[in-house]
Amino acid sequence: MAAKKRKRKKRYHTGVHVSPKTGQECHYRSGWELAYMQYLDENPDVVGYRYEDVVIRYVSNKKTGKTRQYWPDFLVQQRDGQQLLVEIKPKRKLDQDRVQKKLKAAAEWCRAHQVTLMVLTEKELKLLGLLK
Predict the structure, then answer these.
(1) Residue 77: helix, strand or coil by DSSP?
(2) Burial environment of residue 84 by CB neighbours within 10 A (0 to 12, 13 to 18, 19 or more)
(3) Mean of the pLDDT values across residues 48-54?
(4) Residues 84 and 72: beta-carbon distance below 8 Å
(5) Cβ-contact 58, 101 below 8 angstroms
(6) Cα(52)–Cα(131) distance, rounded to whole angstroms?
(7) pLDDT score of 132
(8) 14, 29, 55, 130: which has the fewest C-beta neighbours closer than 10 Å?
């Protein structure tokens, strides 16, 4: 008799969110991203947002000069005209070399485009009331 295959539990909470504010379908990759989308939809100071719409190139290997592409989570347009580039990451991952390279490239992109970079961890999401 063949052994029964066990279903593997998905590691992340994924799905589709249709924003009532933007009308766009967003294919989120974590429950944190979904909670932040819902927060943006309800926030009167937010005019609109785009999910994984900005592409930033960065050097992943200095020796070889290999470049990669990075898609930050959100580009948020606020009512006062300010734009925010938002990346959501667990605090434990912030020290990873790959993440540091991406955030450095994002900071440079933000300076060049007059955009404010925000990195949200579970601490900031809790302060916003999005996590317990």
Answers:
(1) strand
(2) middle
(3) 96
(4) no
(5) yes
(6) 22
(7) 86
(8) 55
pLDDT-based confidence at residue 34 (cuts at 50, 70, 90): very high
What pLDDT, on a 0 to 100 scale, did the predictor assign at position 11? Answer: 64
| CA R_g for the chain | 17
Decide: 91 and 121 in contact? Cβ < 8 Å: yes
Q: All domains of the chain, ordered by start, with CATH?
A: 15-127 (3.40.1350.10)
* Location of structure tokens 């060049």: 112
> What would the pLDDT profile of 58-111 be if each residue is shown by its tens digit?
999 989 999 999 999 999 999 999 999 999 999 999 999 999 999 999 999 999
| Size of the chain in residues | 132
d(CA 110, CA 85): 7
Q: Which residues 6+ apart lie within 8 Å of 67 measured at CB?
A: 57, 58, 59, 60
Cβ 83 vs Cβ 75: under 8 Å: yes
Alpha helices in the chain (DSSP H): 31-42, 97-113, 122-127
